[in-house]
Amino acid sequence: MKKILFSLLVMGQITIAQNKTEKDSTKTETLENVFVTANRSATLRKETPSAVSKLTVRNINETKAVAAYEIVNKTPGVLMVNLGNEQHSMSIRQPMTTNAYYLYLEDGLPIRPMGIFNHNALLEINQFNLQNIEVVKGPVSSLYGPEAVGGTINLISLKPSINPEFKFGIQADQWGYKRIQATGGAIIGKVGFHIAGISSLQENGWMTYSDYKKDNLNIRVDYNISDKTRLISNTMWGKYYSDMSGSVNEEAFYNRTYKSTTDFTYRKSDALRTRLTLEHDWNDNASSYITVYHRDNKLGQNPSYGIRWSPTVNPTTAKGEVNSNNFKSYGAIGQHTQKFDFLNTKIVGGALYDYSPVDYWAYLLEMKAYLNPGTPGKQTVDHYEITAERPDVKLSDYTADIFNKAVYAQMSFNPIEKLIVTAGARYDNLKVDYNNALDNSTGTKIYDKPTFKAGANYNPVEFTGVYVNYAQGFAPPAITSIFRAKPATGGTTGKPAEFYYNLEPATFNNYEIGGWVALLKGKLNFDYAVYYMEGKNELLSIRLPDNSTDYRSAGETRHKGVEFGGNYKLLSNQLNIRFGGTVAEHTYIDFKISDSPADALQNVNGKEMPQAPRWSGNSEISYYPNWFPKFRTSFEWQSVGNYYQDQINTVKYAGYDIFNFRAGYEWKGIEIYGNIINITDKLYAYNVSRANTTSSQPTYTAAAPRTFLIGLQYNFSLKK
Predict the structure, then answer these.
(1) Which SUPFAM superfamilies match (predicted)?
(2) CATH number of residue 82's parent domain
(3) What is the pLDDT of residues 224-233, one digit of tens each?
(4) Per the domain annotation, does 88 fall within a domain?
(5) Contact at 8 Å (CB) between 479 and 530?
(6) Between 581 and 495, the higher pLDDT residue
């Protein structure tokens, strides 16, 4: 049975397999122990020397999430930060950051090409098209390449169902959010298909100027050429437009005055991704696939975070920008998996080629700032008004051709009984041929590096195991950072534009030990990981007093922590207790802020990194009463500890604890459900930050007040 399962699972895809339902509890329990992301092939948990977690189809279906962070945050060691309207940043073995330290995969393939990282990539995901989500914590650059540093999130989509099925649902809350969604699929002869679509709309919400609209469509078609060969087509189309309300000042936050300072900022995205995969099983011990793919993405914005205003220098004026980042990708990836009887050896090897032309421009907006009353130098802005658009004043203007070539291999074997050793390596060559119109320069930037990993699993008895792991991470700077004019240069400053041509790739060395235990006949499961990660040349942004950003890739950082998670089933599986969290510390070891002897602040050596809570966790109690079949209810606790707002460690934000409630009932295929998010109506912010000067004012990314979500869904399945 194990060989059959492993031959079906390739790149996280069960080719023609029934989608699991709550009734398929035995099958679901079996698949929960199989992971595909950490080793690029189906591998049992006890054979995986990594901190890896899986969110199952049941987790996803019962959460009824508006945005992906509601699901992803159930993973121990993960804090996905909600920035509103499905926009987000991330914290996995890193502070809350928008830096290119995370790799987002869709069925094993990166959503973005290397070098064009976007921290909002998951807003393009169709939540109604997810089979499960796998999260690997820590570097996996030896398998997936650059950006797979802090963590890798693989969103595995639904497959055609043996039993023809159809689902249709609607959901809405009291703040003007509503969504319709539909999915369906079947297998007819040798052909299987699955289609899923959602349409979301937010109007007149709790925060002014926070409307958005999102439409997604996913289509998958499988063709069984033979019992050993399959052809799989996947297409994703998405369109997104959102007002960007931005953050609020301290007084507005504590007074719950949820008023945006702008009525013109926005973010929009048009995305198309297609792929065609040919899979072949040579025999029980060998399988291969090749995937060709295409991406077409247009991202435009007038970003609220791009507004630059100083309370001490010309406080009644400000500057903003409009920018556009567009790319296409043409690529192929091939992989072969081979097993040998000698020492139970398994080898996975592959190669990738990606060509992605990109163009990017940004121009200046001149603004007037209308101030709130206050002490000069400590005033805040009530609202901004655009006084002039300046497309003639470019802040960035470049085209580039990005070429990514990579080869990788991983081997695992059993030198002695109960011990599994794994080793892997990858070589990446990322070449950027650019034309920078602002300084009329052309050239080539090359970032190439081999990365390695080595680990071992030891499973002394059936119910417990431990692992050790060493892994390297590698992250070149995003090209949008390289070609951004440095603050106080270019544009209207009168100084020649200077750029970040000398930014270096960040490198990481991660050491960890972890393990798992299953007790009480599998009713109690517990995972843990202890890690220590060193970063060099880490790309960090320095927030200046006018809200502009300066980049540095020099010095050293240290990241260490403990991650844990568990699950306990009681009362004949009627009661399920899930718990998890992380205790971590992120520290500057050697990091220089300024090269100018006149600046009072030279470095932040020994300081804690900002937006880096030492504690975060998510736990949940779920109840499925036998006396009331198909009814469910759950109570969830999300906790985030305190953290420094600035790099010089002067002011902390207290963090937050919030509680959510969910319930649902299904009768004859009709499901009705309701969620209460933030039950206690707590005032809190997802993120709080400030610059390093004493006059700097904090900005708060405010979270929603108590929210009531209700939904109705019809689930139809025709049993064969």
Answers:
(1) Porins
(2) 2.40.170.20
(3) 999 999 999 9
(4) yes
(5) no
(6) 581
